[in-house]
Every structure is written in C-alpha cells, then in structure tokens.
Amino acid sequence: MREFLSVNNVPFEDRNIRKEPEARAELEALTGALIVPQLFWGNRRIVGYDPEALDDLVAAYSHA
C-alpha cells in the first residue's frame, strides 16, 4: 500500500502499531481490531491491499 500511494503521489502518514502504542490504541478504538494495513481518508476506510478501492482513492484525491 505504501508503494502504491507513493507512486501515485498521495501523501500519507505511516504508523507502526508494533512500535507505537498510541497508534495501536487509536486503531483499536477506531475499528475494534488490529488488522493492518488500513488506510483512512475522510470517512473512507480501506482494509488490506484493495487495488480497486485504492484506484478510487487516487482519483478522488487528485480531484480534491
């Protein structure tokens, strides 16, 4: 997911739930689970590597 976003010039904040207890707690509070990767943009959430959803996000980002 990181590479896909970088290649498509979509800025993102990379957070490591193994090394950052605050990030782990925030993810669990938001989703009730510790599944990664997850991407949040506005009210959208993408779980795992979902090429179709990521393409939609890139299109929406480039028009924002």
Short description:
The chain is α+β, with helices and mostly antiparallel strands and 64 residues long. It has a single domain, classed as Glutaredoxin. The chain contains three helices and two strands.
What does this molecule look like?
With 64 residues, this protein is α+β, with helices and mostly antiparallel strands. The chain has one domain (2-62): Glutaredoxin. Helix content is 45%, strand content 12%. The chain contains 3 helices and 2 strands, in the order ααββα. It has helices at 2-7, 21-31, 51-62; strands spanning 38-41, 44-47. It has a two-stranded antiparallel sheet. A hairpin with a 2-residue loop joins strand 1 and strand 2 (44-47). The model has no long low-confidence stretch (mean pLDDT 92).
Layout of secondary structure:
Layout lengths: L1 H6 L13 H11 L6 E4 L2 E4 L3 H12 L2
The CATH topology label is Glutaredoxin
Order of helices and strands: HHEEH
- Give the count of helical stretches: 3
**CATH C-level:** Alpha Beta
Write a concise keyword list for the protein shown above:
64 residues, two-stranded antiparallel ribbon
